[in-house]
Amino acid sequence: MGKIFKYTFYDLVRNRWMIFYTSFFLMLTSALLLISPDLAKVAISLSNITVILTPLVGILFGVMYYYGSTDYIQFLLAQPISRRSIFAGMYTGMAASLSGSLILGIGLPMIPYGILTSPALGTLLIVLFMAVTLSIIFSLLAFLIAMRAKNKIRGFGIAIFSWLFFALIYDGIFLLLLLLFKDYPIENLTLGLISFNPIDLARILTLLKLDMSAMMGYTGAVLQKFFGTSQGSIIIVSILFLWVLVPYLLIMRMAHKKDF
Amino acid sequence: MSSNHSSASAILVTILVTMAPQLSAKVIDLCPTCTHSELSIALNHAHNKDTILITGGSYECKKLEIAKSITIIGRQRPHIVSADGDEIFVVTADSVRIIGLFLSGVVTNYLKENAAIRIRRSKHFELIGNTIQDCFFGIYLEHAKQGILRNNSIEGAATTELESGNAIHAWYCDSLIVEENYVSKHRDGIYLEFVNNSLIAKNTSKANTRYGLHFMFSNDDKYLENTFTDNGVGVAVMFSSRIQMTYNEFSFNWGRSAYGLLLKEMNDANIAHNSFYQNTIGIFVEGSNRINYTENTFSRNGWAIKFSGGCSANEITRNNFVQNSLDLIVGSSISDNRFHHNFWSSYTGYDLDKDQIGDVPHYPVKLFSYVLDQVPEAIVLMRSLFVDILNFAEKVSPIFTPKEVLDPTPLMNRLP
């Protein structure tokens, strides 16, 4: 697995899409810093952009990369290497390079502005954590989709729809449900619904940091406790961890069973 | 501050001592090793215009009534403790000065509003540089006029509203000057009821359980350059008229009904040059008319301004609304409040003629505020793409949000 991880990672570091992705974030962050040198504001703007963009790039790049390397995978399968280590190595290599570009692209331009000693460091770390976790989760979903769908067009279609579903449609249904059941106690429903969407989870994690003043205006006891104490963040982070773990195990199972 | 202060009191002492023969007033020394070592005896010996100079030490005493126009000066911060938990000083004479003491030991009483210093029906008092620690009420003024409270530090240990008193409590007073005080961990930092023509300036009010500053039925007052932070509500102004509020800072007032500034039945006021930072609601307004909001900065509040019912003829101009979760919510549909020439960080219009004023009006009320009003749980959807799209659609063609609430001339750049 270690070797495959290394080859994938080195391959992707030189990949032009990955270089483009990194330089996009480098330019975006530098541009934002030029507009306003206030690091906290830049971190907020970045959180708004990354919460939408990183899942999209994660899922599309994942699908693209998998389809692009089917021949390579089949070649590796002919070698005496276990299937699990092939897929685990490839996946982690890809996730690492995606996360690497994000950390480099967002973090690097901020260093000359003194982020390491600034009070906005906490906010930036949350934004980076959010971006990296979303990349990991959505590239996992990408592998799941690509391994299931042999047809590339179909695979890309499902990938784009999944992104649209989690980024937009889910919240629409969420709001509709809340409006429909507003006469009932729906606090637990709300908390339940949040956990089925990693984008919502990541977004709320940043809300807890950035919009705490507004969140504290909410009057219900359950959510108040959720927002007001560190309990909320801990629960969110653990559910996000599950969102990484479950698809990963599914990929491993699929890797074991799949016919090529 | 304290060395500055002690040198100021030293000068005062020198002046008093040199002037003493002419005024036929004397200085009574009080310290643990002096001829007088008890405050009550020293008080009995004092006549009008005398000075009691307390140097260091700790004194236990029961309730002391000051019925003579005397000056009490503490050097090296003498500690005066209430022996039985009752009040310490009750001032009933005019022109009494209490300077540089450290008072404590007044306990919570559910029948009487016990205070460390009570001024009753007197004028021209000065309370300067005192420290009051863990007392039920700090300074209690009733029917007091033309007095000065300066540079006092009053800190309680309030946990609930019911069990705590106010740091500075004024009732039926006139022409007070309350400045540079630090009030914290009480029920209200400064409470004013029927207090007119007074100045509240440069105070710091922090971590009080209810309000940082509370006006009831008080007219023609000014408060400026104060800092209100981490209180239940920063400032509550109720049933008052003609109040000037300028250059104050309201920050981190968080909670279910926490506001930077709460206005209720308030008329003809000026709110200018204030800064509202990270409050759940910057200003909550109910039944308040003819108020000018100018050149305030609202940044990163949950809601910048929330207008409840019965607000009319308010004018909101030249304010900065910067990165609030929601800028505005307007409770009643009919409104003749005017918004113009404000800077809104959420404004997305353009300025083709380059006159620094946006060419299309800004609608500050978002559809999402209405959704939140119906389903408060929807707050978890804040900043989501779906809600952004919803707000955008509503902005293009307003259906739910009031069309008449708009800023026809939004500024393109933030005001200084």
Task: Describe it.
The complex is a heterodimer of chains A (260) and B (416). Chain A is mainly α. Chain A has one domain. Chain A contains 12 helices and no strands. The longest helix of chain A is centred in the N-terminal third of the chain and has 30 residues, at 39-68. The mean pLDDT of chain A is 89. With 416 residues, chain B is mainly β. Chain B has one domain: Pectate Lyase C-like, CATH 2.160.20. Helices cover 12% and strands 38% of the residues of chain B. Chain B is built from 4 helices and 39 strands. Chain B has a 14-stranded parallel β-sheet, with helices on both faces. Chain B has a 13-stranded parallel β-sheet with strand order 3-6-9-12-15-18-21-24-27-30-33-36-39, with no helix packed on it. A 12-stranded parallel β-sheet of chain B has the order 4-7-10-13-16-19-22-25-28-31-34-37, with no helix packed on it. In chain B, strand 1, helix 2 and strand 2 (51-55) form a beta-alpha-beta unit. The two termini of chain B are 31 Å apart. Classes of the chains: A mainly alpha (260), B mainly beta (416). The A-B interface holds A 41, 44, 48, 51-52, 167-168, 171-172, 174-175, 178-179, 182, 186-187, 190, 194, 199-200, 203-204, 206-207, 210-220, 223-224 and B 252, 254-256, 258, 278-281, 300-303, 323, 325-326, 371, 374-387, 389.
